[in-house]
Amino acid sequence: MVIVMNPNATGDQIKKVIVRVHNAGLRTHVVEGESRTIIGIIGDKKAIMALPIEALEGVEKAVTISSSYKLVSRDFKPTPSVVDVDGVKIGNGSLIVMGGPCAVESRDQLMEAAQIVKAGGAQFLRGGAYKPRTSPYAFQGLEEEGLSYLAEARAATGLKIVTEVTEVAAVELVASYADMLQIGARNMQNFHLLKAVGRTGKPVLLKRGLSATIDEWLHAAEYIVNEGNYNVVLCERGIRTYEEYTRNTLDLSAVGALKHLSHLPVIVDPSHGTGKWHLVRPMSMAAVAAGADGLMIEVHPNPAEALSDGPQSLNPGNYMALMHDVQRLAEFLKNEVR
Amino acid sequence: MVIVMNPNATGDQIKKVIVRVHNAGLRTHVVEGESRTIIGIIGDKKAIMALPIEALEGVEKAVTISSSYKLVSRDFKPTPSVVDVDGVKIGNGSLIVMGGPCAVESRDQLMEAAQIVKAGGAQFLRGGAYKPRTSPYAFQGLEEEGLSYLAEARAATGLKIVTEVTEVAAVELVASYADMLQIGARNMQNFHLLKAVGRTGKPVLLKRGLSATIDEWLHAAEYIVNEGNYNVVLCERGIRTYEEYTRNTLDLSAVGALKHLSHLPVIVDPSHGTGKWHLVRPMSMAAVAAGADGLMIEVHPNPAEALSDGPQSLNPGNYMALMHDVQRLAEFLKNEVR
Amino acid sequence: MVIVMNPNATGDQIKKVIVRVHNAGLRTHVVEGESRTIIGIIGDKKAIMALPIEALEGVEKAVTISSSYKLVSRDFKPTPSVVDVDGVKIGNGSLIVMGGPCAVESRDQLMEAAQIVKAGGAQFLRGGAYKPRTSPYAFQGLEEEGLSYLAEARAATGLKIVTEVTEVAAVELVASYADMLQIGARNMQNFHLLKAVGRTGKPVLLKRGLSATIDEWLHAAEYIVNEGNYNVVLCERGIRTYEEYTRNTLDLSAVGALKHLSHLPVIVDPSHGTGKWHLVRPMSMAAVAAGADGLMIEVHPNPAEALSDGPQSLNPGNYMALMHDVQRLAEFLKNEVR
Amino acid sequence: MVIVMNPNATGDQIKKVIVRVHNAGLRTHVVEGESRTIIGIIGDKKAIMALPIEALEGVEKAVTISSSYKLVSRDFKPTPSVVDVDGVKIGNGSLIVMGGPCAVESRDQLMEAAQIVKAGGAQFLRGGAYKPRTSPYAFQGLEEEGLSYLAEARAATGLKIVTEVTEVAAVELVASYADMLQIGARNMQNFHLLKAVGRTGKPVLLKRGLSATIDEWLHAAEYIVNEGNYNVVLCERGIRTYEEYTRNTLDLSAVGALKHLSHLPVIVDPSHGTGKWHLVRPMSMAAVAAGADGLMIEVHPNPAEALSDGPQSLNPGNYMALMHDVQRLAEFLKNEVR
Fold first, then answer.
1. Where is the DAHP synthase ferredoxin-like domain (chains A, B, C, D) (predicted)?
2. ipTM associated with this complex
3. Nearest Cβ partner for B43 among D32, D34, D43
4. Of C109, C298, C325, D42, which residue is the least packed, with the fewest Cβ within 10 Å?
5. Are residues A109 and A251 in the same domain?
6. Number of helices (H) and strands (E), helices first, in chain C?
């Protein structure tokens, strides 16, 4: 951390800042600039973070130099991590696809979706049994009944199951059905939930919060890993901006940024990221080309009848065409470019 | 809802949309525009919201005309609500202030803070015993120990206690100590938690999510009220924007907007809203003048030693001066202008 | 500026950075942190700003410590500036109001508006003769004809005229009619235009860009002042955020921030800032309480017939009521609180 | 446009709205909903846009159904446009690259850059002779001297020249040197400048404004095309969001959105879009895969000595590697996938 003093800070004020820092067991490095004094702080990150330095008189601002996450950082582990979900590896250079409906709506809908997802070559079936919805009057999910259909679809197809868990109380139950636990955007900073899924040891798919910075997102992952669970995959799903044409703004630069800052695998969800089915194909191709380890794609046997997020779901035909293209692209990139 | 068809949508596509709407038990109203057909949908809000119309062929977009919250709306209840917190009324035209430290750090710190808060004339003591923090390594709160100090401070001063609850499992415990339950910004869409505090019947202070629209915020309130608990007070605490000088951008226009759309009382938190203590005074004055029913202000006996959010906390002197000014302003507005 | 090196930067890379800085005539201060090296740079701000340090190998990031504007800063001139517009002073503690229609639409409309504005007690008449419009098909203003009506309205009422200039070629013409030149939000970084109005020496009202940071805004003001024209007044008019209920998000914390960072007067435009006439009153009151030196208010004799921005214009009755309230509030604040 | 009345609007208020619309030569379509009346307006887009309906009593809001741009829309011209820049075609399915330094700094720098750009296989040389800079103290460009170096580099390499014009007064001069005129992000809504470049008939590269919606961007293009100049290419260069790791958030979904809404070609600038050279490669690959017609890439012979935007410039080695990869990718996509 670097403390920037006011140009008119007194010597006494500067001294008090230094004493305050030293009292916290940290070292200082004072630099007299042209117009103001700057004080560098050296020492333990956690102790530095705990300092309310801006509350001291004469301080203009405090600038954080390095982030406080550690276990998820590339500095800590320079090689990319591979997350193994019951034999399916995420992050080893092969493209992974998680397909399926936004919500599990019925046994028939899910079984039909699973067959399509499987036929296209995806490795995972997605589908929400617990749906966080803006309105209390919208469909909230089939809960355990939905989980049982997911398990049945797995038995029928061999697909791995990734599904969202939305509360601590349901973690054990969801973990007993799912191969991978999804933390949704709204719960990215539900720290109790992060710790709870961390303690399960199960692979976790951590979606980016709607207005989370990359730094906050990696801190959220740190909560999980800090419980001893390194099986974390990050999922970019669009951020909230002023643009209204798309539901969210899919931030593909996050893929490269995360690869630079962290060792965790990264996948992309262009369905939620754009909210429009006709943008799913171009953004899927773009995500793969940007270096994503996988895709999460909404597929519905009949989008027009979906109980949730129909406008962004692919129908079976579009899904099959997309899978063909992204797989060929991934193969090309693996063999000929990288 | 209004469905906007593509300019080149076929008659067959238009027909299919209409059939789909009718099958959902809704009525349609077709308007042939200059270049495209528009279909108005009439009927039950919930049924309309559940339609995935944009997934149908030939549909350009679906435009939502009216929101789906009901119980919290001004249409539903045209007169302002007054929330009674054990005798203290919020929303009756008098200014309410909730003061105190961001976090309960120790018995001494809290008791000292409570005396200051009381001396300034506030009605509530605030202070977090459970602190959601971006980093797992930051101070996370004293938990039940903190709650007991809050109760002790209440006994000593007569101040009402408002404190945050961050998980369903702790609702009962926190409710046994607090007079009012606070839902923090990160949990505004933690729907399980909203329902849980709704079921307690206790007054709830619902903070706006970091990137929540006013519409989403009112839907979150609807989750609480839908459980039968009408004792909800909304708290504007700044939204996330591109501006970096302030921690958040305090959206004071939300006060007037909420008064227009809803009957619930509204208070403002300029401490989190700006992140800088020197902006707390001007934004407190502004909030009162904008028509807020109350303020939530961070006060710390010694901000430079705070374990959390020191830079935005007022010291005792600044707090006393602020209280004098906002109270005089509130009185002036009540007697001479409104 | 502080340069943060990668944790694994080599000694050679660090050396090269230092040499590069020294070659630019600047001094360095090297701090060896726990996990990485940090290099402080000391010297002339302009020389520091010109360094493309992040392009050097081993550099993680460069953190700017202090801004490069100077003439508009409070460090440079610690006392508030008062801008004199032909005898009317902005920034001397009295509330200034600029009222009038968004656009000059006709002689009759403007003369009627001017009489209303005058009757309410405002000092300035506003009204656009040149209107920057999103669509090429929207009303673009009466141009010089509009300016002549403004001059006529001034003659009739004694109000000062503030009106927008949108291109360098029109600066001389507009300056020959207006008492104060307005730079609109879209032109806040039209640097040619800033220099041109700077050269006139006329008072300038500089509106904040739609997504301008406070830092960029002050730099834009610096462009004007750097031409020798210190008669600059800043106008907060709302920033673009994700919120859709209001046209923009009026950032009232900018008032206090600007007062802290700069000596220039600040006014607020709640009409553009909210886009809804029913929010103009609460946000006007809030702006005054936040310490603004003035208000810019849209008033139209008949908002429902306005050619531009009718929904945010006050009708004569609402305007008169507002003026009564804001003037009483300003008086109260001046005499009893500050 | 659809007018949504308040639930408690009176019959008289509804009648007045209808009369107001009819007086503007438009037709209405009244729909009685469950709780409120909705009035559809049919007729000429321009007349509809000019209505200040929200200013009428009893109106809750007015919802715009279709945008007012026309000439640039896909509805107007269903086939993609190809822009011919002196023989080089943009939008015909081949990848176009515009490479070069952010600013023309010297004859040597530019000639060296041009040789590198040419060697990599790009078709255009970019480089700013007029630089809009946030600070008045930053390097502002070599102006006409810079233009002459660009012309010299064209003579030496055969590359086409694209360079920014920042004011109406310089349009003729820049057009006499350049093959394509660039409108920068800050000038996207400088309507005088848009009309001026429109009148030249020269190909125009229109960058997206920093916080421009796609709708506003297409309206800006409409200003140019409305002058009779259809040679417009759109350039996505990142939008302003809350995320701080990247300089901007590159919105690649804009590529697909623009292809859906408009017939104009679209290119992407990942250098400004990310602000970090190490993100240029992944985002270039992603842009190509998303369907962009071209890329604009910053290349500098020696980024560490650049006077502007060094951190986001590729050095020659990285540029050559990138060109190899994007060209192979474009070829693959053209031949095997699309």
1. 1-66
2. 0.93
3. D34
4. D42
5. yes
6. 11, 14
State how many domains chain A has: 2
CATH number at residue C221: 3.20.20.70
> Who has greater pLDDT, B91 or C31?
B91
Taking the Cβ of residue C254 and every Cβ of chain A, the question of whether any pair is shorter than 8 Å is answered with no
C12 and C153, same domain (yes or no): no
> Which structural domain range is residue D148 located in?
83-337
Write a three-state SS string for chain B: CEEEECCCCCHHHHHHHHHHHHHCCCEEEEEECCCCEEEEEECCHHHHHCCCHHHCCCEEEEECCCCCCCCCECCCCCCCCCEEECCEEECCCCCEEEEECCECCCHHHHHHHHHHHHHHCCCEEECECCCCCCCCCCCCCCCHHHHHHHHHHHHHHCCEEEEECCCHHHHHHHHHHCCEEEECHHHCCCHHHHHHHHHHCCCEEEECCCCCCHHHHHHHHHHHHCCCCCCEEEEECCECCCCCCCCCECCCHHHHHHHHHECCCEEECHHHHHCCHHHHHHHHHHHHHCCCCEEEEEECCCHHHCCCCHHHCECHHHHHHHHHHHHHHHHHHHHHHC
Confidence (pLDDT) at A338: 61
Q: Is the Cβ of B73 closer than 8 Å to some Cβ of chain C?
A: no
- D273 close to A (CB below 8 A): yes
Q: What pLDDT does residue B338 have?
A: 61
CB contact under 8 A, D69 and C211: no
Q: Does A77 fall in a domain?
A: no
Do residues C202 and C273 both lie within one domain? Answer: yes
Instruction: Please give the interface size between A and C, counted as residue pairs whose CB atoms are below 8 Å apart.
Output: 63
Residues A175, A322, single domain; the answer is yes
Q: pLDDT, tens digit, for every residue of B153-209?
A: 999 999 999 999 999 999 999 999 999 999 999 999 999 999 999 999 999 999 999
Q: Is D312 a member of any domain?
A: yes
CB contact under 8 A, A282 and D291: yes
pLDDT at C116 over 80: yes
pLDDT above 80: residue C337: no
Asked whether residue C16 falls in the same domain as residue C162, the answer is: no
Model confidence over D21-55: pLDDT tens digits? 999 899 998 888 777 888 888 888 778 877 878 88
The conformational region for residue B51 under phi > 0 = left, psi -120 to 50 = alpha, else beta, is: beta
The neighbours of chain C, by the rule of 3 or more Cβ pairs under 8 Å, are A, B, D
C115 is a domain residue: yes
- The residue with tokens 């903190």 is B146
Q: Coil, strand or helix: which one is C34?
A: coil
The tens digit of pLDDT for each residue in B128-153 reads 999 999 989 888 899 999 999 999 99
Q: What is the mean pLDDT of chain B?
A: 94
The per-residue pLDDT of chain A, averaged, comes to 94
How close A65 gets to chain D, by Cα (Å)?
13
SS3 per residue for A39-90:
EEEECCHHHHHCCCHHHCCCEEEEECCCCCCCCCECCCCCCCCCEEECCEEE
Cβ contact A288:A330 at 8 Å: yes
Shared domain check, C171 and C295:
yes
C282-314 pLDDT, tens digit each? 999 999 999 999 999 999 999 888 887 788 999
Residue A121 shares a structural domain with residue A255 = yes
Read off the pLDDT band of D7 (50, 70, 90): confident
Q: Is C87 helix (H, G, I), strand (E, B) or coil?
A: coil
Quote the pLDDT of residue C271: 97
The two tokens of residue B78 are 């045209």
Q: Judge whether A69 lies within some domain.
A: no
Segment C77-97 mean pLDDT:
97
pLDDT, average across residues B67-95: 95
User: What does the alpha-carbon distance between residue C257 and residue C212 come to, in Å, rounded to a whole number?
Assistant: 14
Residues of C in contact with D166 (CB under 8 A): 191-192
